[in-house]
Amino acid sequence: MREKSPIKRAATFIAFNGLSLFAFFSVLIIPFIYGLILTFTDWNAISDTFRFIGFANYATVFSDKEFVRQFLITIRYVVISAVLCNLFAFTIAYFLTSGMRGQNLLRGGFFIPNLIGGIILGYIWKFIFANVLTQLGKGFGIAWLKTSFLTNPDRAVWAMIIVTVWQYAGYLMMIYIAGFVGIPRDVQEAADIDGAHGLRKLGSVTIPLMVPSFNICLFITLSRCFMAYDLNLALTNGAPYGSTQLAAMHVYQKAFMSKQFGVGQAEAIVLFIVVALISVTQVLLNKKREVEV
Amino acid sequence: MTARLRKRRPVSTVAVFALLILFLVPFYLVLNNSFRTTELFVSSPFRLTGSLDPKNYVSAFQKMRFMNGLGNSFLITVCSVALIMVTASMSAHYLVRNRTRLSAGIFGLMVASMIVPFQAVMIPLAKIYGSLNLYNNPWTLMFFYMGFGQSFAIFIFHGFIKGIPFELEEAALIDGCGKLKNFFRIVLPNLKPVMVTVLILDVLWIWNDFLLPSMVLLSPELRTLPLSTYSFFTTYSVDYAPLMAGLVLTIIPVIVLYLLCQRQIIEGVVQGAIK
């Protein structure tokens, strides 16, 4: 469907791609490049002019003890959440593809938290941690439940992890279910005939064939948790003492509360690089380990 | 599968059902206590409510300006998603049917851009659009969603359109049908299944989004539902009972949508993740 005249060709191109590319470039590409340039300047919200200062902002980022500490907390939160989310989701998916009674109802039920935004989920759980669990602790005399999870720095991170697992488990479960259902029937039957049952079959046949599902789910949890903001804001808002302020919230605070745009943007770029590395690793792993059927 | 289908395990069925109940207890607590008082909630959160007093709902409805938030959320979600779907499907169609180096370059850039998290462009966006005086405007927000939504939607449409035989369009083009007419009359109706996937993913994303609208929409009367919930909670943080009612009100629209088209939603979410 090539046009002869170059003007007509350009007109067709613009008619089909004009709006799409205009929005894409003005919202994503240009701000991204502009943001990269910003990280090499001393620009702040107060002055209109700025100077180029080389890598000074990046040096500030890595010498900022607060950022490094919160970055480490974020990594801990991300890793634990990703492992628990996937373990939980895989286990439920395994049971919900075994021909269980009412499995459609169960699948639909586990998925519900994923429909709701992080702000709302965060507030629901804030009540539970602050009021309901403490009430249970008092009622049944369980010492570790008597004080709220949200007032202790270490346990507040666990509160975030619990809600994250709750939020994403149903979503990941659906992807694992698609993976289980996608395993060819003849392979399953061959394993049965060869006498592989239960855990043996799960370990030697099912899991190797589900590597693509694991990759998708791990990538989703790692990148989403790394950028977690809404849940963080509603559930803990960084309290107590900034011990649960995750990296994404730190960037927001740096830029819009402390008005250090250059440093904030440099932190955002550091986060971007981490997420990009995770994605690239995932793609490479996917290519390398995928079992050909 | 057959071997596993044959043995039904009642023990694990009961265990998974129990787990689901535990999983959904938070919703029970919020719904139940939205009909009770703050004192009763603090002293006995699990006890079933004796009345269905709508007092908390009336209070929440007014204080969080629920209808205002609902209307804004609805308008912004519908317009943004419509803009994304029309522009992205047109662009994807062009990129599939015109196999040039430019097309490949655009598509490659779109795919690569999907790894950029919002936080990486948040500050420059505030700087650029703030200085152009375009903030505090719902149309700016829709334009933002249109831009952020392109790459994923084009990626999904691209994969689908590749599978549609070109002969279908060729016949129309030979008959003298213009390219735009060809797209809207012949191609678009065939995109229905993939349209549903994009629609569901984008509706859930935009409806629940918080950070971007919180930066763009500054006036109280422009707030979307997540924003009105947030300001309701930060303003009236002491009296829990109306807050619970507020949460229930905010959750209802999504749950209604889920009950109406559960199959499509789950399908759409899974398709979007696997592709």
Summarize the structure.
The complex is a heterodimer of chains A (about 290) and B (about 280). Chain A is mainly alpha-helical. Chain A has 13 helices and no strands.
Describe the model.
With 293 residues, chain A is an all-alpha fold. Chain A contains 13 helices and no strands. Chain A has a single domain, classed as MetI-like fold, CATH 1.10.3720.10. The longest helix of chain A has 33 residues, at 6-38. Chain A starts with 5 loop residues before the first helix and ends with a helix. The mean pLDDT of chain A is 89. Chain B is 78% helix and 0% strand. Chain B is globular and about 75 Å long. Chain B has 2 domains: 2-57; 64-235, MetI-like (MetI-like fold), CATH 1.10.3720.10. The model of chain B is unreliable at 1-6 (pLDDT under 50). Chains A and B meet through helix 1, helix 4, helix 5, helix 7 and helix 8 of A and helix 1, helix 2, helix 3, helix 5 and helix 6 of B.
Write the layout of secondary structure elements.
The complex is a heterodimer of chains A (293) and B (275).
Chain A: H1 6-38, H2 56-63, H3 65-95, H4 103-111, H5 118-140, H6 143-146, H7 153-181, H8 185-193, H9 198-209, H10 211-226, H11 230-235, H12 247-257, H13 261-289
Chain B: H1 2-6, H2 10-33, H3 38-43, H4 55-63, H5 66-97, H6 101-113, H7 119-131, H8 138-161, H9 167-174, H10 179-190, H11 192-208, H12 211-216, H13 225-235, H14 240-260, H15 262-274
Question: Any key phrases for this structure?
Answer:
heterodimer, A: 293 residues, mainly alpha, MetI-like fold, 13 helices, globular, B: 275 residues, 2 domains, 15 helices, 78% helix
Order of helices and strands of chain A: HHHHHHHHHHHHH
On the 0 to 100 scale, the average pLDDT of chain B is: 91
Poorly predicted regions of chain A are none
Number of strands of chain B: 0
As a percent range, the share of helical residues of chain A equals: over 70%
**What's the Cα radius of gyration of chain B?**
24 Å
Distinct helical segment count of chain B: 15
- Broad CATH class of the largest domain in chain B: Mainly Alpha
CATH topology of the largest domain in chain B: MetI-like fold
CATH class value of chain A: Mainly Alpha
Instruction: Give a short account of the largest sheet of chain B.
Output: none
Structural class of chain A: mainly alpha
So what's the overall shape of chain B? globular
Q: How much of the polypeptide of chain A forms β-strand, as a percent range?
A: under 5%
Order of helices and strands of chain B: HHHHHHHHHHHHHHH
- Structural domain count of chain B: 2
For the record, what is the CATH homologous superfamily label of chain A? MetI-like
CATH topology of chain A, anyone?
MetI-like fold
